[in-house]
Write a structure and sequence with these properties.
Blueprint (H helix, E strand, L loop, with lengths): L1 H13 L6 H10 L8 H10 L6 H13 L3 E7 L2 E6 L7 E5 L5 E4 L2 H13 L10 E4 L2 H7 L1
Parallel strand pairs: 3-5
Antiparallel strand pairs: 1-2, 3-4
Helix pairs in contact: 2-4
Bound molecules: zinc ion (2 copies).
The site of one zinc ion has 7 residues, from helix 6.
């Protein structure tokens, strides 16, 4: 955890940007979120902790966290993006219902195995992945009957 924050600090400095307490607040909060999140989620979580952070600061920090490889955009819903933390997390699928927007994660060790095999075979260094499958969830399928 401490290293992650140090690394982020260095990353920001290397880019010639100022490392601010707001940026660190956003990162610390993200490290505690377990589910997918959007800007509002972070904003309200921080507000509940009496943070004075603005939504604009969060919007400005997220692209840096993506670039640094800490988070990735998982899906878009009603025009805004949802993210998740990427490090310490194995590749997994997102089943996304196009009708209600529900997202189910599929964790399966075979997926990681498969990606690893192909990564080696093609001699790639894996940076990020985006595994989305769109469909209609069981509830919505029921409602359509
Ligand atoms: Zn649905
Ligand atoms: Zn996910």
């Amino acid at each position: 955890m401490k290293n992650l924050i140090e690394d982020f600090k260095n990353f920001i400095k290397k880019k010639g940007l100022k490392y601010t307490s707001e940026r660190e607040e956003v990162l610390r909060e993200i490290l505690e979120v377990e589910d997918h999140f959007d800007v509002d989620t972070l904003y309200f979580r921080l507000k509940n902790k009496n943070s004075k952070i603005s939504k604009a600061s969060i919007y400005r920090t997220l692209p840096l966290l993506i670039e640094a490889g800490y988070i990735q955009e998982v899906y878009k819903q009603a025009g805004h993006s949802y993210y998740e933390v990427t490090f310490n997390k194995l590749p997994h699928l997102h089943f996304i219902c196009i009708s209600c927007g529900r997202v189910d994660e599929v964790m399966d060790p075979r997926l990681n195995q498969l990606i690893k095999e192909h990564e080696q075979e093609k001699n790639y260094k894996l940076l990020s992945y985006h595994l989305e499958i769109f469909g209609i969830c069981s509830n919505c399928k029921e409602a359509l009957k």
